[in-house]
Specification:
heterodimer; A: about 325 residues; alpha/beta; Rossmann fold; four-stranded antiparallel sheet; about 30% helix; B: about 325 residues; 2 domains; eight-stranded mixed sheet
Chain lengths: ~325, ~325
Amino acid sequence: MNMQSQAPLLSVQNLVKNFELRASKGLRKSKRIVQAVSDVSFNVSTGKTLGIVGESGSGKTTVGRSILQLITPTSGRIFFDGQDLTELSFEELRVVRRQMQIVFQDPFASLDPKMTVGTSISEPLVVQGISGDHQDRVAELLDLVGLAPDHARRFPHEFSGGQRQRVGIARALALDPKLIVLDEPVSALDVSIQAGVVNLFGDLQKRLGMSFVFIAHDLSVVRHIADDVAVMYLGKIVEIGNKNAVYNNPSHPYTKALLSAVPLPDPKVERLRHRIMLEGDVPSPVNPPTGCRFRTRCWKATELCAQTEPELVARATGQQSACHFPE
Amino acid sequence: MAESVLSIRDLRVTFQTQMGELCAVRGVDVDIAAGEILGVVGESGSGKSVSFLAAMGLLPATATVTGSVMLDGVELIGAKKKLVRSIRGRLMSMVFQDPLSALNPVHRVGDQIVEMIQSHQKIDETKAFARAVELLEIVGIPQPDERAKQYPHEFSGGMRQRVVIAMAIANNPKVLIADEPTTALDVTVQAQILEVIQRVQQSFGTAVVLITHDLGVIARVADSVNVMYAGRNVESGSVQDLFDHPSHPYTRGLLSSLPQEGIERLIPIAGFPPNMLAPPPGCGFAPRCPHVIQSCNASLPSLVPFEGLMTSCIRADELRIGGLRS
């Protein structure tokens, strides 16, 4: 969002990712294109957190993976520290990847069950060819994420879900990255455990000054942790800006509906609240609606919305939103 | 208090495992009246699902269930299988988290609802099908007569959950147990499904047990709440009282773990839930509780009345921990 100030650490520009679906109907093979991400742009500054929220199929995970080039974008540019990642060779990418890491939702799936936690955490150091004894570094990393140094000798199954996620975070921190993409990092955890991991992210950022892209469907967690928020719907950013602007004065009808759908843990508030009930489900990204992609569920939609796709426009409240009839 | 349609007393469930006896539920009482929504909240492994699977007679043979489950005056624990089967789906039915696994992929949804109706009522095919269409309409499925002829894969996740609810209410049950019915759904779809559940409760006077880990969902729709931890009810009461002035440190801990507007730092609960192969002798929450004293570990505390709630915290009166606003 700080387009004018100093160069952002990460700048995603016009990112597009299409997936080909090979569906066969009878004997005939047909090719269909899933437009997972369509023309998404945003910046993340050093030491800041961008939250990406959206429902399933909104493309938020695809954006996260495209940032690290874990999937190759169909088009668009991704500048990291001034370098366009989409133009780098595999070898060049490997060097840059030292600076950027990812933490996934399921900490059990992302740790090798046959490897001690210490070996898992030191693996990035080995892969990147950093020589020497890694034991001290592993102990330091475990301490950083709130685990004990002697945990290094244990195996993933000996840990609880929250602890495993901490191991995953320790591994992501091993190379001192400037950016970590956190893809639903707390959604598999019980709330009482989740709170500790959320606090950990805040502490790490304060201490180490790295940037986060925090992808989640839980709007309350994102509000807590992010500086800026991007709201995605069907592969597009419909609203982006400072979290207070977006949460306090949502400009796009979808953001408004999404916020009003989140149940708040307060019965008095819940029972008095006006809720916007969206009709139906998210349309298929294979055949998204013309014009504004949200129009099929929007109570404000007119003929204009079907014909012309709205662009992201800066609003008086500070954020940008893509709507012909903003709030 | 109105008379309970479902009344559970001292329910205990143990599983025989290779590592020993696992005590999943350790003496749970539940009362729910017609037209009431009871929220049952707890974290994974708290025994919230197992309690109601036991009430439905749906646990595997490795489980030992004791206690009493009275549905409309009929005892279900120890009852003949035939009786339990005739009650399940008629007087009491259940909706699960994943609607796809609750539906048969090779049968049309209308036929599946017809099967549900005909297994409990003597009614001819045409009438049963008309009823199925009517049910689909009740749960808010557009063009129900056409949709009834479609297969589960032709429905979206939210629509499938509506079909499952239609099936569950097909025989006008007195009790509907919904086990994390919206957990797999997006938040805008969750709002729709919660509305359907409320509509069912209001129009048919169905008693609804809503099992969830989400305190927000409880705050939105429940009338009363049971908070479960380590196989026990640790606190219960009306939704207003419980959120306004929780008396149990675990309930308070859950509430302070949640990110809320204007809260700078979350307060997690230290440690993790106990191993149910060897549960603590006293209060299950004692090992994680910031207010623990020696007598907490002495014996299993039972629920006692405290300020409109039922609490199992022996220090409730002395601590008066209160809600987030206090």
